[in-house]
Design goal:
The chain is of the alpha/beta class. It has a domain at 425-520: ANL, C-terminal domain (GMP Synthetase, Chain A, domain 3). Helices cover 31% and strands 25% of the residues. The protein contains 17 helices and 26 strands. Strands 2-1-12-11-13-14-15-16-17 form a 9-stranded mixed sheet, sandwiched between helices. Strands 4-3-5-8 form a 4-stranded parallel sheet, with helices on both faces. A 4-stranded antiparallel sheet has the order 18-19-20-21, with no helix packed on it. α2 packs antiparallel against α3 and α2 crosses α4 (88-98). The protein is globular and about 70 Å long. The protein binds ligand J2J. Ligand J2J binds next to α8, β15, β20 and β21.
Length: 526
């Protein structure tokens, strides 16, 4: 029904159904099933508030009803920008039930991102938390409205609480359930359409690989709308197993450790810089972390040294997770030997995840050598939303997604992430498309040319450095003025260049293009 979605070829789809990956189940049916199985068990905890499975199901129906009353209907897009609060789940599950598509954004996104995303999806509604962490999203909404004429409703969770229960059955499992944001390497963020069938498969399989059960208590420390937190196995995997989801308003040890003790949390997921902060704090903290059984780390490369400290310091197992919102997710397995858990980023979920590791001309590299990772499979998209030109380069003719990651594969199937070919900065798990920031910098009247690259950072792994060439007659600029300019353009704070350097020329490649590799090494600068 959504023409902006690239379907899997019919024969492939049939194969995925026959193999039992795609079970023809929608999120709405799935949630009814959970309510029937787990009824009064606690599903979601936010501070003193608790939702049972039955209550979550009911709240999802009421939210669906509230959206329906607003005139939102099946297939409509709704921008969701919510922090880690309990209401996230009934709102998202309610939209799934209605067949409207949540478009996930992060709490840190600002006018540039929300405006573009709302416009690019012709979103009819924007759901935000009101004032959150001293930031007023009502004001943001006012700035976004002129950018996205399709927006008819701006609502907060309180506006959605008491609709009349809606329980339509119109949605089908092959429909797109939501749009997720891509880490991106182009000027504007790309959107990822995921179907009920494909996402539920990744959730069921992830819950099994991670051995979740109704005893699992999962702390939502990373942003809840991120693909890792949602589905690897994340909040949806934990619900699938009948476990308990505990929202955590901030990932710092000061906030998270007392919650772990109070709720007897058994697992959580972090990006590497946070894992390192937790390791340092736990060593000197008297917080009771004894309930913790599993720490998942992913989103960026975890150093072998930090990986080796997890078990001795936190007293729980480590799982490395190398995933992407486009699909493919790799996990180290609970019974993998320690060397694989510490030294690799895991192996794919599915026996039908196809992996190719190729050189710059798409020829497979010899086994064990580093190359570009290409993948296709039962939960990896075949195209971005409304992006035919980008799709032509981001996917091969036979449907493999070009991840932009440089990896090598061990005989066991485990992948080691060795680097990145895409023009992106991975700032401690937060992805920044260099081109997006460069375009904003180029809007400054004094800037002749801009190039944004990653520089190594001991804490975040990478930070951003913007190299700028100023126009000859332009008045000089300070780094602070450049940063303030980017902020004034409405970009999320994590995309504002950490460092700004003024140069007279950029290093060139042999064919006269800017050499970002040399720029990262600070070669050829003048
Ligand atoms: C190195 N690089 C990694 C890792 C992701 C689970 C976990 C993470 C994501 C995610 C996700 C990495 N080591 N362990 O969606 O479901 C980098 C790669 C990858 C990109 C994807 C999930 N884990 N990466 O991080 O869509 O470069 O998804 O292609 O945000 O993050 O980013 P994103």
């Amino acid at each position: 029904m959504l023409t902006d979605f690239t379907p899997w070829p019919d024969a492939t789809a049939q194969r995925y159904r026959a193999a039992g990956y795609w079970q023809g189940e929608t999120f709405s049916g799935w949630l009814h099933g959970l309510a029937a199985r787990f009824g009064e068990r606690v599903a979601v905890v936010d501070g003193a508030r608790r939702w049972s499975y039955a209550a979550l199901n009911e709240a999802a129906s009421r939210t669906a009803g509230a959206f329906e009353d607003l005139g939102v209907s099946r297939g409509d897009r709704v921008v969701v920008q919510l922090p880690n609060i309990g209401e996230f789940l009934p709102i998202v599950l309610g939209l799934f039930r209605l067949g409207a598509l949540p478009v996930f954004t992060l709490p840190s996104h600002r006018r540039a991102e929300i405006g573009h995303i709302a416009a690019a999806t012709d979103a009819v509604a924007y759901v935000h938390p009101g004032v959150w962490e001293r930031f007023d999203h009502h004001r943001l909404a006012d700035e976004v409205r002129p950018l996205a004429p399709s927006l008819r409703h701006v609502v907060t969770p309180a506006d959605l609480a008491d609709g009349k229960p809606f329980d339509g059955t119109d949605v089908s499992a092959g429909d797109v359930a939501f749009l997720q944001l891509s880490g991106g390497s182009t000027g504007l963020p790309k959107l990822i359409p995921r179907t009920h069938d494909d996402y539920l498969y990744s959730i069921r399989a992830s819950a099994e690989i991670c051995r979740l059960s109704s005893d699992t208590v999962y702390l939502v420390a990373l942003p809840i709308a991120h693909n890792f937190t949602m589905s690897s196995p994340g909040v949806l995997g934990v619900l699938h197993a009948g476990g308990r989801v505990v929202t955590c308003p901030a990932p710092s040890p000061a906030v998270a450790f007392p919650l772990i003790a109070a709720e007897r949390v058994t697992m959580t997921a972090l990006v590497p810089p946070l894992a390192m902060v937790w390791l340092d704090s736990a060593a000197s903290s008297d917080a009771d972390l004894s309930s913790l059984q599993l720490l998942q780390v992913g989103g960026a490369r975890l150093s072998d040294e930090a990986a080796a400290r997890v078990e001795p310091v936190l007293g729980c197992a480590l799982q490395q997770v190398f995933g992407m919102a486009e699909g493919l997710v790799n996990y180290t397995r609970p019974d993998d030997p320690p060397a694989l858990v510490v030294g690799t980023q895991g192996r794919p979920i599915s026996p039908d995840d196809e992996i190719r590791i190729v050189d710059a001309s798409d020829r497979e590299v010899p086994a064990g050598e580093v190359g570009h990772l290409l993948t296709r499979g039962p939960y990896t998209i075949r195209g971005y939303y409304r992006a035919p030109e980008h799709n032509a380069v981001a996917f091969t003719a036979d449907g493999f997604y070009r991840t932009g990651d440089l990896v090598r594969q061990l005989p066991s199937g485990h992948l080691v992430v060795e680097g990145r070919a895409k023009d992106q900065i991975n700032r401690g798990g937060e992805k920044i498309a260099a081109e997006e920031v460069e375009n904003q910098l180029l809007a400054h009247p004094a800037v002749l040319d801009a190039s944004v690259v990653a520089v190594p950072d001991p804490v975040l792994g990478e930070r951003t450095c913007a190299y700028l060439i100023l126009r000859p007659a332009a008045p000089s600029l300070t780094a602070g003025q450049v940063r303030a300019f980017v902020r004034s353009r409405g970009l999320a704070a994590y995309k504002i260049p950490d460092r700004v350097e003024f140069v007279d020329a950029f290093p060139q490649t042999a064919v006269g293009k800017i050499s970002k590799a040399r720029l990262r090494r600070r070669e050829g600068l003048s």
